[in-house]
Amino acid sequence: MAVEEDFAPKKKKEPSENDIRRKKIKPGNVMKAEMRPGGGDAKPSDDDQVIYHCTVRTLDGVVVESTRLEYGGKGIPIRQVLGKSKMLLGLLEGLTTMLKGEVSMFKMKPEMHYGEEDCPVSPPNSFPKEDELHFEIELIDFSKVKVVSDDLGVIKQVINDGQGWESPREPYEVKARISAKTGDGKVILSCTQGEPYSFTLGKSEVPKGLEIGIGTMTREEKAVIYVTNEYLTESTLMSVVEGFEEVHFEVELVQFTQVRDMLGDGRLIKRRVRDGKGEFPMDCPLHDSLLRVHYKGMLLNEEKTVFYDTRVDNDGQPLEFSSGEGLVPEGFEMCVRLMLPGEVALVTCPPDYAYDKFQRPANVPEGAYIQWEIELLGFEMPKDWTGMDFPTIMGEAEKIRNTGNRLFKEGKFELAKAKYEKVLREFNHVNPQDDEEGKIFVNTRNLLNLNLAACYLKSGECKKSIEYCNKVLDANPAHVKALYRRGMAYMTNGDFEEARRDFETMVKMDKSSESDAMAALQKLKQKEQEVERRVRKQFKGLFDKKPGEIAEAGTQDVEEKSSGETTSDNTKDDHGDSDGIEEEALLEDAGNAPRGRWFSSVWPTGRRLFSAVGFQRCTIL
Fold first, then answer.
1. Which residues have C-beta within 8 Å of that of residue 571, sequence separation ≥ 6?
2. Helix or strand (DSSP H, E) at 271
3. Which of 85, 110, 124, 180 could form a disulfide with 80 if both were Cys (CB 3.0 to 4.6 A apart)?
4. How many CB atoms within 10 Å of residue 230?
5. Residue 99 has what DSSP assignment?
6. Within 13 Å and on the Cβ side, how many CA atoms surround 157?
């Protein structure tokens, strides 16, 4: 098949609009006479920017129009991009025959200038477009350029290539030396000496067109950015822009600092101070990587008080920690995970991502904003389980599961979920070799699924919790721990009959679980009574009101906070081994887990409850 494709006829490239126009040219339509030779042997081609003066005369020498001052023009040469700009057909053809500095006269028939059928350029008023004319052209310069905006309002000509691959973007902080002049060469801005101009992309501190052009540059690149008046917006750099048809900005991009708004609200900001090595994001740390960092912690006060420095307070040794284990503040880890080895970053962090939820150093006030200066020295990738023997794999799985259990007890449910899910993904490639290994494998997998069910229950995602319990029960319908946890998820979700069925099944399957099942059923009864009270209060007096008042009766706020109750749980798994998670915490929050409006907690048991309070003959619209 590949051979057939190699020898299959390839589609011809569709001709461009200019290619089609060039086919109209007939011998004798354009005649060229060189008046002054140019230099070198290079000639412009498509996609080159050409800068030229043009004077148009009748055959008897009368000037029709000109760019030159001496002939009534503005003295500003024409700047166009071959193959991109709308040009007269005779110029499109003639300019490609010229050398830099050359002056030539082109004698054009009407169909080669404004007399061309469907000419893309409109003629000036009173222009003799039906006449044969002389076009005197001086090719001042031509060069390769990058068309930055499709309408040619912003074009960049590279003078010196930059370093690296990255370009600044919003909201990067940029330092650049910038000078500017008009199309006729008048200098209007000069910042080539002294300190470079500092600004932030996206804050209108430079004209829009200049900002767009700088966004295509790399560090230490030098370029000329041509900006037409449509892109000359007022800014801190240039407060006056009226009267300029276009401005040529000469830019040297000295430095830019990567700035990332990690939360999107301007509170957790990462500024890259020094580049790292590698490609972003492929060479950044992965989840479970072992990281080595030096860092300095400072308070965001006037003195920038340093409260910890690894180089001073840790005997000069770097901090080592595994990502995803909750061992450093959340904001710290979020930023380090987006760093390259060798990179230095300055992180500004709000208290809720710093030490409000993490062990606070003694000299850090509660609610304080923090700034960390972090250097990522390097990291080690997580272990590859491929090729490990079964005992080693199960040992690694147990370590990660225990870490997940610790994170769960600390209330870091998302991190705990990531640990359990990592092991389950790795288990997809594990093949036990005998029955004993098979039992150990299945038991561990069940524990992981149950732990995930507990995480989702704590997060208020009852359906996901039930889903993971079902994975255990599909293989072992008598698994008491899974029945208990699924019953808790059903109860939290308002599915009381399903919950009761699971708790009663527990007792049938294992008499030793009777005390836990009875406690759960008691909790279930309290929940049902609570919902019944809500229903009665919600619909109290509803049917005594007039039709226009019924809507009001259904909008009263009747939410009641349920009191938490603690029930012990000594339920073990099939091998008598606890799953390592405190069930008391699950029971305490069972009545307060996040859910929708009150009606979602009533349905599908709502019909039975409506019947109990005497509304069996009512239709709920």
1. 480, 481, 484, 513, 516, 583
2. strand 269-274
3. 85
4. 13
5. P
6. 19
Residue 153 CA, distance from chain mean position: 28
Q: How far apart are the first and last CA of the chain?
A: 63
The C-alpha angle 467, 473, 474, rounded to 5 degrees, equals 85
pLDDT (tens digit per residue) in 478-519? 999 999 999 999 999 999 999 999 999 999 999 999 999 999
Residue with tokens 């709920």: 620
Mapping DSSP onto H, E and C, the string for 533-570 reads HHHHHHHCCHHHCCHHHHHHHCCCCCCCCCCCCCCCCC
Q: What type of residue sits at position 137?
A: I
Both structure tokens of 429: 């490639």
pLDDT by residue (tens digit) across 339-391?
999 999 999 999 999 999 888 998 999 999 999 999 999 999 888 888 889 99
d(CA 130, CA 145): 35
Hey, which residues does 135 pair with through a beta bridge? 56, 106
Q: Which residues contact 61 (CB under 8 A, 6 or more apart)?
A: none
Cα 314 to the center of its chain, rounded Å? 35
Using CA atoms, how far apart are residues 610 and 117, in angstroms rounded to an integer? 81
Alpha-carbon span 147 to 79, nearest angstrom: 13
C-alpha to C-alpha distance for 256 and 275, rounded to whole angstroms: 10
Task: Please count the other Cβ atoms lying within 10 Å of the Cβ belonging to residue 345.
Answer: 25
**Token match 């008023």: residue?**
125
- What is the rounded CA–CA span in Å between residue 143 and residue 80? 11
Q: What tens digit of pLDDT does each residue of 395-448 get? A: 989 989 998 998 899 888 988 998 899 899 889 888 898 999 999 999 999 999
Residue 609 belongs to what H/E stretch? helix 606-612
